[in-house]
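Re: duplicated header lines in exported structure tokens

Our pipeline writes sequence and tokens for each protein into one text file. With two proteins the header for the second block appears twice in some exports. Here is an export where it did not happen, for reference. First protein block:
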Amino acid sequence: MNKETDNNLYPTLSSAINNFGFDRAPFIEGFKREHFTLQQKAVSTIVLPMIAVMAESYETNYYDDRNGMAAEMCKFIKDALAEKYGYDVVSHSLSFV
């Protein structure tokens, strides 16, 4: 994959999610059927960094009513991962950002 393709992935996904008719069920079903290694890669390269960014938003009060619950949930997840597994989402996720 090249940098141009990488740069277009998020706007494409964001546009699909922002569509009021977005049906996440097929997307989730596709993820569930994906190879286990690719599931792990998706979580470590997409999900965990998003949790880190949103937790930071909560900790720095950089959120509003539209994303406040998501920010608070990500802070909770970040803290739970640290407490249960000793896993620092921020240092593992943002080292490549």
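Second protein block, exported in the same file:
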Amino acid sequence: MRRSFAVLTASAVLVVGATATFAQPVAPIPFQPAVPPPAGIASPPGWRGDDAIATLERLLRDRGFGEDVAFGPMDAFAPGDDGTRVAVGTGDVRLDAPIGARQPEAWFVYTGAGGWWVWDYGAAAPADRLAEIQDQMVQRQARARGATTTD
């Protein structure tokens, strides 16, 4: 009887010790962005809203957007501004819904084809669902004509 009590006691100590080891808090994994920003690209000094608009006009024209969009009215909001919230939008929450996370290093430019992120190194991407739909439509039309678009 003493032997089985000793085995039972030893088993209980192992179970309690193992449970206590697993109950330790796990250190959080540091957040890493999915795509790091391009290395070595510094913002040009004095890059303004007019520069963001001119860059987006060129990119939209090159993608195949019509002049009504590419050269239509645009509002530019500097990185850090609440442009995604204060831009007029369509009034339809499904179309005005942002795509992905806010881009803190990009300008937000609102056009007749939705909101766009514009980076000072000459790239742009749709910022809301309307811009994404418009961009896909223009690309489909270009493929149907046999033309290619630049991203």
